[in-house]
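We give the entry.
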Amino acid sequence: MRTSFLTVSVLLHVAVLGIASVVAYGHGNARKPAQVQLQFSEEVPVQPPVERPVAPVTTEQRFEFVLPEIDVVPVLPEPEPDLAPVAELLTADVVPPPTAERVAPLPPPPAEVVPTPEPKPITPPPVQPSAHVDATPLVDRNQPPEYPSLARQLGQQGTVRIRVHLDDRGDVLDAEVAEPCAHAELNRAALRAVRRWKFAPATEDGVPIADSIVVPVVFLLTDA
């Protein structure tokens, strides 16, 4: 098959070269046509390798077992035990153990009586009285009550006691007439004045607290 393929290939080359020469000659080319030499070579067919039969290899192993010679030792019978000492022990008189004399237990020692100490009276610590300071009006900052003109003309005099409720800063929360005098105009004048006053707050152990005090307001006519 390879020979036919080479033949077809050579013929195709010859045809191509012939066509090229004709075309060159037809166009007035003065060159001579190229000479083509064809050489044929016969292809030697490749012979396939000859498979040679391989003789199977067999390995034979021989094992020989040699038993060692064993000396046979005769088994001797065991001697019978001597039971005479055991029989003597069994037939001997059994002596009971000596009885222990019963001893009465000793009485327990008398319990030691520990005297109970008398409880000491607990003295409570002395209660220190709290240092309470009442609130006081600030005289240098408070205006005295205005004396009513009608009461002055009528010659009215008297003392009005006003109860004042203060907070922990000394400001007046409320005020009321605790003990009035006989003249209503003087009572109203005293109440109006005290409600505008300023006070130093009351203290308890140095701590400012709210408090209520009674302030006397005196109306007295003097010869001016």
In short: Helices lie at 2-26, 84-91, 149-153, 184-194. The mean pLDDT is 75. Residues 2-26 form the longest helix (25 residues).
